[in-house]
Design goal:
Helix content is 21%, strand content 27%. It is of the alpha+beta class and 973 residues long. Among the domains are: 284 residues, glycosyl hydrolase (family 31) (Immunoglobulin-like, Sandwich); 199 residues, Golgi alpha-mannosidase II (Immunoglobulin-like, Sandwich), CATH 2.60.40.1180. Strands 6, 7, 8, 9, 10, 11, 16, 18, 21 and 22 form a ten-stranded antiparallel β-sheet that branches. Strand 46 and strand 47 form a beta hairpin. Helix 8 packs parallel to helix 9, helix 11 crosses helix 13 and helix 15 runs parallel beside helix 16. The radius of gyration is 29 Å and the shape is globular. The N and C termini lie far apart (92 Å). The N terminus is likely disordered. The structure holds 1-deoxynojirimycin. 1-deoxynojirimycin binds next to loops. It comes from Podarcis muralis (Wall lizard).
Length: 973
């Protein structure tokens, strides 16, 4: 009976979700998601006030070894000792780890995200007094002053203070403890939860904690507790330490926490950690995706902190700090002198407060301060708060933005080089209904002469949402379908979600169950939640054996009907649990090793994508590069594929925000980002759809996708004019594929983002700091998509003192810096090439990127103010690891100076044969030469044909007909 009732409830929850998802809803139901106040640890931490740190560093405990400094910190209030370890890392980074000296049991430390144990440098003590010690950090000119009481650390470059740690005294470390009086606490939290429910019954507001709870909260969890102090013993250093620590007067929510109908049993009690960082002289901070917000982070004073907790947020709202599907706990701080980074390596629910002493001041106010000499130095403070784990934080000391990218990449790896097709255009919807539908859409692209590479199958393709299977009625012959696509040199992506239908007739489920690979409930049974297939189990992706098994499921013998041209989409991997707290997994669910879901939550999606990508590599015997799209992500996810921004809507603001959302990801290593073109929910009007294609064509991951409830929107369904506009946008993407591919190669090698905020390339230009309606691709193209309805023009900021930019469509030359007004029509995609750059294109129109493989190149040489330009091109087979394992690639360099364009190798380690040649060289900003000559080694000089347009100063040199791998020079005489 009870079981049946439970199933009934589950069904209702799922039906409610589904009903919601089908209805035209306009905004997120905020009450489904916690505010900081409703997340007990966030509330406790936020109640800790600045300026009264109870921590003292025990200078006498300091130990210096080859590569690290260790020192104990004592909480003077409860006498619990912590151990702080400090490492100077190669490449100008510092790592700080803080853990309990004697935890009751180990606390979670995030594995698998760092690509290696970061190499250390030597630390040395360079000064000392009664209350402080000064360390030199090995590399650069950095010093760290550690003050004992109150504990803080200040990092200096030369004599300049660049960063302080705990200067506001917000270090919080809730030590593991035994529950003092489980009975009375239980009673009190039960009272609170009953109270919550009663209140809930009478109010439509999200449940709030009773007022009394907030009172006295200033003495939050790390406030002195007399009983605790009584129950102490001596540490090695003679300090008092807790004796199997027990606590008194815990706040409600410490040992059990209820949100809506869900109670988190919190067997370990309060375990949160937190720390503050201050950046003097800094007004601009960025990063910590994923949020649907501006690129430049805003102060969180008076509102909620930015939340990092991977969640499936239905109909997410824009311009707020609510959590979304993925989390990268990396923040960048920037001013004209330097860029710094903080990487907070913690996978638990995390909140980040940003405060600034200049927030809210107008530019005029700031100028007035400056003129009167009375203004304070601007400063931005950030405060990190995580629910469990340890403090493990990397300070990336820059000083340039590129240094930060390199530093972060040395820790978590770089963007995987995607197979070339993945950079082309993807056609998706929920769902392409059957094989015939797939074939009709596929043919549609040929009929309408629009290139495309990949068609996607959403959840309805599988047999009853049993992933790795095909619906026998709709997709009875998957291999034939895939072969049909392969014949046109196209691919398919099928969805494989990490919730597995509980069904004893489903092989995948049976195997997972028999191998005991499912996540467990707190009571040890298999965790079950509600998702697309109904009741579902969640494989424990934190278990390496489970991941290896999962990977093997992508083998052609296991995934029946699959073929080489079938790739994967991992959705719902936050994980999404329709009937779980905040639509995700219960925090007290248990993973391998006994870790709570609480500890690993933000890592789950990372592991799903990792295991899937490894499966694709394995099925090819290690030869082929994978392509996996994921919705959830964490630091390091860049190593496994692409991400997209989830369920957006067909609204202008959603188009607009796709730019800062992808830019924020790019800043923290994840370059392969895109948004559903057209918007997922609702039906775009044709103007919006066209504008979205135009914008998407210039974003890294370019896929149209739509909710099942929307009307069909293949590009030819909107009339000839709109079709032509969409076709043109897609063709622009294809022409630039060599450029995109080279950018991705560069990102893979160096960690530099593909899509860049302007300030990354122009770090001293304060005008760029808040710009997020335009961006750079590499350092060569500046894109300002039209994102406003009925736009007649856009204001484009062209940066770079003394630089020039060329409109790529008209070739008009513009001097920078300036804000240029460009009048636009429906066909305009404002894109500018920087004078001084060379961009390679392939301009023949084909069906797919693979069909263009041997096509000739056109080089666009945009002359800089000195009449020079440089550019690069990367070429390989486009899909295997041979570029890595066998050096089979070409990395070419083109350089123009002294009226001569030269092609040479940028990297002699690579070699590769390709028939592709150069059919044209277009030089922007060139005068008319009398003659043009081509010179190749051991070949007589030959004259080349050319045309020159005096009005635009465009010189077009015809048919040099040199192989793309050859060395040559072209001189204008
Ligand atoms: C949610 C995803 O965000 C969306 O893109 C997909 O179509 C649906 N799940 C169905 O799989």
């Amino acid at each position: 009976m009870a079981a049946a009732a439970a199933v009934g409830r589950l069904e209702m929850a799922a039906l409610a979700w589904l009903a919601l998802s089908l209805a035209v809803v306009t905004a997120v139901d905020r009450s489904n998601f916690k505010t900081c106040d409703q997340s007990s640890f966030c509330k406790r931490q936020r109640n800790v006030e600045a300026g009264s740190s109870p921590y003292r560093a025990l200078l006498e405990s300091l130990q210096l070894s080859q590569d690290s400094m260790k020192i104990q910190l004592i909480n003077e209030a409860n006498k619990v000792p912590l151990l702080l370890e400090l490492y100077g890392l190669k490449g100008n980074m510092t790592r700080i780890r803080i853990n309990e000296l004697n935890p009751l049991k180990p606390r979670y430390e995030v594995p698998d995200v760092l690509v290696q144990d970061p190499p250390t440098t030597r630390l040395s003590v360079t000064g000392r007094d009664d209350n402080s010690v000064e360390l030199s950090l090995g590399e650069g000119n950095h010093k760290l002053i550690l003050t004992a009481k109150p504990f803080r650390m200040d990092l200096l470059e030369g004599r300049e203070l660049v960063l302080s740690v705990n200067s506001r005294g917000l270090l919080v470390f809730e030590h593991l403890r035994q529950r003092k009086d489980s009975f009375s606490d239980k009673v009190s939290s039960t009272v609170v939860s009953i109270w919550d429910r009663i209140k809930n019954l009478f109010s439509r507001e999200p449940p709030k904690e009773p007022a009394s709870e907030g009172e006295g909260a200033a003495e939050a969890s790390d406030a002195p507790s007399s009983a605790e102090q009584e129950s102490t013993e001596k540490t090695e250093q003679g300090e008092e330490a807790p004796k199997g620590a027990s606590e008194t007067e815990e706040e409600p929510g410490s040992w059990e926490e209820t949100f809506k109908t869900h109670t988190d049993s919190k067997p370990n009690g309060p375990t949160s950690v937190g720390l503050d960082f201050s950046f003097p002289g800094v007004e601009n901070v960025y990063g910590i995706p994923e949020h649907a917000d501006y690129l430049r982070l805003r102060t969180t004073e008076g509102g909620d902190p930015y939340r990092l907790y991977n969640l499936d947020v239905f109909q997410y709202e824009l311009y707020n700090p609510m959590a979304l599907y993925g989390s990268v706990p990396v923040l960048l701080a920037h001013n004209p002198q330097r860029t710094l980074g903080i990487f907070w390596l913690n996978a638990a629910e995390t909140w980040v407060d940003v405060t600034s002493n200049t927030a809210g001041k107008t530019l005029f106010g700031k100028m007035l301060d400056y003129m009167q000499g009375g203004g304070e130095t601007p400063q931005t403070d950030v405060r990190w708060m995580s629910e469990s784990g340890i403090i493990d934080v990397f300070l990336l000391l820059g000083p340039s933005p590129n240094d930060i990218f390199q530093q972060y990449a040395s820790l978590t790896g770089t963007q995987a080089l995607p197979p070339l097709f993945a950079l082309a255009y993807h056609q998706s919807r929920w769902n392409y209904n059957d094989e015939e539908d797939v074939s009709t859409v596929d043919n549609g692209f040929d009929e309408h002469d629009i290139p495309y590479d990949v068609i996607w199958l959403d959840i309805e393709h599988a047999d009853g949402k049993r992933y790795f299977t095909w619906d026998p009625n709709k997709f009875p012959r998957p291999r034939e379908m895939l072969q049909g696509l392969a014949a046109k040199r196209r691919k398919m992506v099928s969805i494989v979600d990490p919730h597995i239908k509980v069904d004893s007739a489903y092989r995948i489920h049976n195997e997972i169950r028999s191998r005991d690979f499912y996540v467990k409930t707190k009571d040890g049974s298999d965790y079950e939640g509600w998702c697309w297939p109904g009741s579902a189990g969640y494989p424990d992706f934190t278990n390496p054996e489970m991941r290896a098994w999962w990977s093997s499921m992508f083998g052609y013998d296991h995934y029946e009907g699959s073929m080489e041209n079938l790739y994967t989409w991992n959705d719902m991997n936050e994980p999404s649990v329709f009937n779980g707290p905040e639509v995700t997994m219960h925090k007290d669910a248990v993973h391998q090793g006994g870790w709570e879901h609480r500890d690993i939550h933000n890592l789950y999606a990372f592991y799903v994508q990792m295991a899937t990508a490894e499966g694709q590599v394995k099925r090819s015997g290690g030869l082929e590069r994978p392509f996996v799209l994921t919705r959830g992500f964490f630091a390091g996810s860049q190593r496994y594929g692409a991400v997209w921004t989830g369920d957006n809507a067909a609204e202008w603001d959603h188009l607009k925000i796709s730019i800062p959302m992808c830019l924020s990801l790019a800043l923290v290593g994840i370059s392969f980002c895109g948004a559903d073109v057209g918007g997922f929910f609702k039906n775009p009007e044709p103007e919006l759809l066209v504008r979205w294609y135009q914008a998407g064509a210039y974003q890294p991951f370019f896929r149209a996708h739509a909710h099942m409830d929307t009307t069909r929107r293949e590009p030819w369904l909107f009339g000839e004019e709109n079709k032509a506009l969409i076709r043109d946008a897609v063709r622009q993407r294809y022409a630039l594929l060599p450029f995109w591919y080279t950018l991705f190669y560069h990102s893979y090698r160096t960690g530099q983002p593909v899509m860049r905020p302007l300030w990354v390339e122009y770090p001293q230009d304060a005008t760029t700091y808040a710009i997020d309606d335009q961006y750079l691709l590499g350092d060569a193209l500046l894109v300002h998509p039209v994102t406003a309805q009925g736009a007649r023009g856009v204001q484009v900021y062209l940066p770079g003192k003394g630089e020039v930019w060329y409109d790529v469509h008209t070739h008009q030359k513009l001097h920078a810096p300036q804000t240029h007004y460009l009048a636009v029509t429906m066909s305009s995609i404002p894109v500018y090439q920087r004078g001084g750059s060379i961009v390679a294109r392939k301009e023949r129109v084909r069906r797919s990127s693979d069909c263009m493989y041997n096509d000739p190149y056109t080089l666009y040489v945009a002359l800089g103010p000195q009449g020079t330009a440089q550019g690069e091109l990367f070429v390989d087979d486009g899909h295997t690891f041979s570029f890595e394992t066998k050096g089979q690639y070409l990395h070419r360099r083109f350089s123009f100076s002294g009226n001569t364009l030269t092609a040479s190798s940028a990297d002699p380690k690579g070699s590769f044969e390709t028939p592709a040649w150069i059919e044209r060289v277009v030089i922007l900003g060139a005068g008319k030469p009398a003659a043009v000559f081509l010179k190749q080694k051991d070949v007589a000089e030959s004259r080349l044909d050319f045309t020159h347009e005096a009005e635009t100063s465009v010189l077009t040199i015809r048919k040099p007909a040199v192989n793309i791998g050859a060395d040559w020079s072209i001189s204008l005489r």
